[in-house]
Amino acid sequence: MKKAVFTFGLIAGGIVVAMMFLTVPLHRNGTLNADNGFLVGITTMVVALSAIFFGVRSYRDQQLQGSITFGRALGVGLLISLVASVCYAVGWEINLKLFMTDFVQQMRTAAIAKAQATGATAEKLAEVTRSMDEFEAMYANFVTRFGMTLMEIFPVGVVISLVSALLLKKKQGVA
Questions:
Q1: 173 is a domain residue
Q2: Per-residue CA distances from 161 to 29, 98, 120 (Å)
Q3: Structural domain tally of the chain?
């Protein structure tokens, strides 16, 4: 099981990390922003985490002679998701340190600009600024930031693991 988990987890993690680095210039030049960047990110996660399906199927067919329970398939899928999620979080930390050093400041600027564009009052602008101050303080903590980053991708992996387990469960002797 370890081989399937690490092989397919690293494949999925490699895809999301590669896309993360490939899209940095698009964020920098404004082609990607918070709205369309989210769509690109989620699409990349779904495509990359499709490796869960292939990993569970590979484990079932190569290690378990073609049969697997829902629970075991789900477990393998979740472990693949965990490996991919850790790769993603480590990749984000590297990206943050090397290329996105002003990430929090960019978020602050975008949040304030969005509030101003919607005609926010001075009180609302002060609230947005306070909120961004709190976010910046929280995001400065490595453990909190790493956990937040894991939670961006892991839930997607959970859903794909559930679907894969449902599709791939097969009792022994059943074709």
A1: no
A2: 35, 32, 42
A3: 1
